[in-house]
Structure formats: structure tokens, C-alpha cells
Amino acid sequence: MARRRRIFEGKAKVLFEGPEPGTLVQYFKDDASAYNNKKIGVITGKGVLNNRISEYLMSQLNEIGVPTHFVRRLNMREQLVREVEIIPIEVVVRNIVAGSLSKRFNMAEGTALPRSIVEYYYKAGDMDDPLVTEEHITAFGWATPQDLDEIMSLALRVNDFLSGLFLGVGIRLVDFKLEFGRLWEGEQMRIVLADEISPDSCRLWDLRTNEKMDKDRFRRDLGNVEEAYQEVARRLGILPEGGPSDFKGPTLMQ
Ligand code: TMP
After folding, report:
1. Would the CB of 175 count as within 6 Å of ligand 1?
2. Which residue ranges form the domains of the chain, and what is each CATH number?
3. Average pLDDT over residues 39-68
4. Backbone torsion region of residue 99, taken as left when φ is above 0, otherwise alpha when ψ lies between -120 and 50, otherwise beta
């Protein structure tokens, strides 16, 4: 097989040139990093699980009309996506206090927020991805006010939909990070959801026990990281238990 051109290699994924112009192949690695690469490790099987979980969540979002870069899953570790111009902002939506919000305001993790909070971080590893305001984003030209209106509205729609989806399988969506890109169709530009949505980019807590089912297990050395990712996939009904054709539906909670 001809070697594909590698476009970009990140911490957890590699992007290759796709089969047609305007497409890319997104390859999910088992590599994990945290605290801006200060902690590095491998979570065996993570790439396969994140590929499948992200496929499922992006497809569900596509179905309700949220535009995404996702086209289709190609194999266990790869998916075909549309090539977009990534907006260099990480959009974090929070429903419950955790992580950096808990540290910044010295608030207990687990405190429910009276309304969802949307935060923006500038994607710049050498600056530790600083928290930025809309003023920074528009003044520095990373996105226009119109782009930000669209991003905020999509982020809140994603939050409403995913909160309900996860609640249905006994999981609390504590917070998550999204990335967006510009998709050009001729002269027309659309903002679409890009990157991935997986336990690497979300905080997911068991509804009954508050047990963490996401990358915090790796960040905080809690163990059973792969098992937690598997459990998320199992609850969503997308973990093949008896072979690839044995996809069960979601496990609904009473
Ligand atoms: P934080 O509490 O560390 O700011 O993280 C908020 C959410 O964003 C959490 O679900 C993890 C996710 N996240 C990423 O996916 N990538 C990142 O680089 C960071 C800092 C957070």
C-alpha cells in the first residue's frame, strides 16, 4: 500500500492526507498526555475506543443537524473527516465544577453550576493554552464575532444533547472540550465541529457513584483507565461484546 502523507501529528492523533481532495484520515493513537505534555503514557486500546465513541457521538450530533467534520469510520483506528481550517480555540463547556475551574476559584469539585459556563482557551502549547476572552479572540483575529456567536450556539446545543444522551446511560456530563473548524464550500463558509469527542476530552462521572470514567483516571493515577473507557462504550451500546457484528443498543438506566 502506498504510504500516505502525514499532515499533522498531535498528542493522541495523527492526520493523514485523505483519499479525495478536501478529506483527511484521522488516526487514533493509544498515547496519552496530560498537563500540557508534562505527563505522558500509553492507554492500551484507547485509540480503538475513542475512534468508536467519537464516531458514535459525532454521528448522533449530525443526525440532529449539528454540522461536523466526520464522514465515516474506516477501520478500528481511523476515520475519514473533512479537511477544515481549525480555529485555534478550545471551547470548554462546564455543567459541574471540576478540574481547572475548581482550582482557579477554590471551589469543591462536584458543585453543580447554576448555569452552564462556556470558556475559551487559546491553543498554544508553549503558553500552556491560556484562558482568553471574546475580546482577545476577535482583537487578535482568531475568529470573528459572527464565528463566536455560531460557536457558542453550537457548543450549547452539543451540551444539551450530549448531557441528555449520557444521562440516559447513567453518566453525568461534567464538562468537555470542543474544537471547531471552517469548512469552505466555494465562496460559502460554515463552522463545523471538528477533532473528537471522547473520554479524552470530556469529564464523565457515573451517575450513582460519581466514579470517574474519563481521562482524569490517567491524569490522577486512579488506575483502570482502559476499563473506564470501555465501560463508557459499553453503556453507549457500541462495544462489540461477541465480535464486530454484536452491537447492542444503549443500556438505559431506570
Ligand atoms: P480543565 O478543567 O482542565 O480546564 O478541562 C476542562 C475539560 O476540557 C475537561 O473535560 C478536559 C478537557 N480538556 C481537553 O480535552 N484538553 C485540554 O487540553 C484541556 C486543558 C482540557
Report:
1. yes
2. 4-83+223-241 (3.30.200.20), 85-206 (3.30.470.20)
3. 98
4. left
